[in-house]
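Holo prediction — KG4.
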Amino acid sequence: MRQGAQDYRLAGQSTSPAVSFPSFLPSLWAANTKFMRVLGIETSCDETGIAIYDSEQGLLGDALYSQVEMHARYGGVIPELASRDHIRKTLPMIQQLMDEKGITADSIDGIAYTAGPGLVGALLVGASLGRALALAWNIPAIGVHHMEGHLLAPMLEAEPPQFPFVALLVSGGHTQLVAVKGIGEYRLLGESLDDAAGEAFDKVGKMLGLAYPGGPRVAALATKGTPGRFEFPRPMTNRPGLDFSFSGLKTYVRNTLSELADEHGQVSEQDKADVARAFEDAVVQTLVIKCRRALKESGLRSLIIAGGVSANQRLRAGLQEMVEAQRSRLYYAQPRFCTDNGAMIAYAGCQRLLAGQQEGLSIQAHPRWPLESLPALR
Ligand code: KG4
Ligand code: ZN
């Protein structure tokens, strides 16, 4: 071993042989730097997202590649195909973004990659690449929580929310209400006991014969639906608490569609649109009722919504109406930063690195990772 070298082991691999790295690498990183430029890498599911965020100049550039077409023929994400495609895309996308923006490696101060939750193979691609680049460039890297990324995405907007606030996280994998005091200060108020809101949209999309992901397609079909023709339940709204359940709604949709089907099992386009509308109204109203309750119970005056379903126009409109009546305010990210993207990861990682949070040389990948377990920034 070279003089001054230290031993590092891959996380969770205590029996593996020690990997030796020179000791100057982690100590290069001085805590509480005033500004930073961070490369963000998102590969937790079926989108490769790359971005460069500068704490002084804001977002310098971002790129997104969606694997949606590849998975569409299977009706959902195939994890192994997702990992392989991230391997093909991630590094060339980083190179292309840096070239296009004229950003050189020596101007990048840190790397943020999504460390979880997500598909483990997909996570490992971004994590090993991010860690390796940080090692090559002698800069720190940090594993970011995907839902913290979503939660902080509205901070990229011109008028960002101020802490504290209530956050409604609605994605394909999560539906959570969280009281947020600051970065890393999260108190879970309620969550879905079964399907996430986005998952319910996707499954209903499938029943309606729409391509994956169903969410935006169900929303588009619902605009042609007749409001009020069907009344679906608003699950768990007439009992106290802030938890959700969306799987019963799916059954409701399935039963309604089979009642509407003709002798050949066909449902007319108008009937499908009316069902889509009833389903969307039920999800939106359920979320509105719970958000109103969360604001009241927490005494907070700001609500942020984040994650793929926060791009839903009817949800935004319903919540806007509710917050106005509550003399509160609603915040959300522009649609492209509601769904998975690299900018939210670069931003979240930048905040943590700026505060002096640092990690050793381990590669972080946590398929399951509770949001409340994250350390507070102060
Ligand atoms: O946050 P996201 O991109 O990925 C996860 O972290 O899961 O969320 C994807 C989810 C999908 O279920 C998708 O159908 C849903 O967000 N989604 C929508 C809309 N846009 C995306 N759901 C309803 N309305 C939309 N406009
Ligand atoms: Zn997401």
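READOUT: The longest helix spans residues 269-298.
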